[in-house]
Amino acid sequence: MRILILVLLLALLLLLPGSFFYFLALRRRPRRRRKTANSGNKPSSAPRTFRMDRDWLRKTTKQDMYLTSRDGLQLHAYLLPQGDCRNFVVVCHGYRAHAASTAHYARHFYEAGATLLLIDARAHGESEGRSFGMGWLERLDVLDWIAELNRRYDHPRIVLFGVSMGGATVLNVAGEPLPENVKCIVSDCAYVSLKDEFLYQLRSFYHLPGLLLYLADPLCRLLAGYSPLRDGDGCAQLRRCKRPVLLIHGGADDFVPPEMLERAWNSIPGPKEKLIVQGAGHAESVLIDPARYWAAVDGFLKKYA
């Protein structure tokens, strides 16, 4: 009896830290009032800029699209059609954000003539789900969105664009078999290793030991459907990439270290370009130096898309 009690106590001690990590990092929380800016310090013009773009998005004609994921979740996206719908940009948002939070980027692409698909990642926005896939499970969702666009619009030209977790998503998609009409990929401030990013976050922001991630991994596999230790290797995905990739990162990013860009860069075997905006924190590159940012993006798309 004593041995059984000791085993149960030990199991409980191992379960508690794993549960803490899962609910802290991967579990969807009840909806709260959404903020207009991402994490990190923003220039004083950022809130007004984002409000203007959100207002633009609200007033722009858009349609709700839905898709059933491979594990049975109803996923949501906004379609912003224009013209003959032959040029698409699929936009993936960041961690704990939603499709409308990408309005600042969407507006630029839309005004350049592209039709947009703004995705609500699983467990974000209007999409179903209890656990975040952190760009790993979402890679399959994006593949299914691409297939849906091809079915509806007879294989239009498609560009994949993502920021933060969305940036990691499109880099993970890059390693999957892609149809020829997916022309190129743009990734802003992405992490390329889920394991390394979680370890960095635990130590730098929460001052917790990396052991917590190892204790949490079995529970994450059970509840979230993937392993933070074994899955989410963006570098391995990029080594199989057959599309041109533009990498963007802020030189002062303390949320996703800039060295992640260099690791991604060294993993890409084909055409690639990069932009590092000095002084920019996480997801701030477009705000700190919008002229260089959009010159890099537009030049890249003109060349490859």
Please describe what this structure looks like.
By secondary structure, the chain is of the alpha/beta class. The chain contains eleven helices and eight strands. The chain has helices at residues 2-25, 46-59, 103-111, 137-153, 165-174, 194-204, 211-223, 234-238, 259-267, 285-288, 290-304; strands at 63-68, 74-80, 87-92, 115-120, 157-163, 182-188, 245-250, 272-277. The protein has an eight-stranded mixed sheet with strand order 1-2-4-3-5-6-7-8, sandwiched between helices. Strand 3 (87-92), helix 3 (103-111) and strand 4 (115-120) form a beta-alpha-beta unit. Helix 1 (2-25) packs across helix 7 (211-223). The protein is globular. The relative contact order is 0.13.
Alpha carbon gap, first and last residue: 68 Å
Enumerate the strands of the largest sheet in spatial order, edge to edge or round the barrel: 1-2-4-3-5-6-7-8
Rg to the nearest angstrom?
A: 19 Å
State the order of secondary-structure elements, H for helix, E for strand: HHEEEHEHEHEHHHEHEHH
Helix-strand makeup class: alpha/beta
Number of strands: 8
Q: Summarize the amount of helix as a percent range.
A: 40-55%
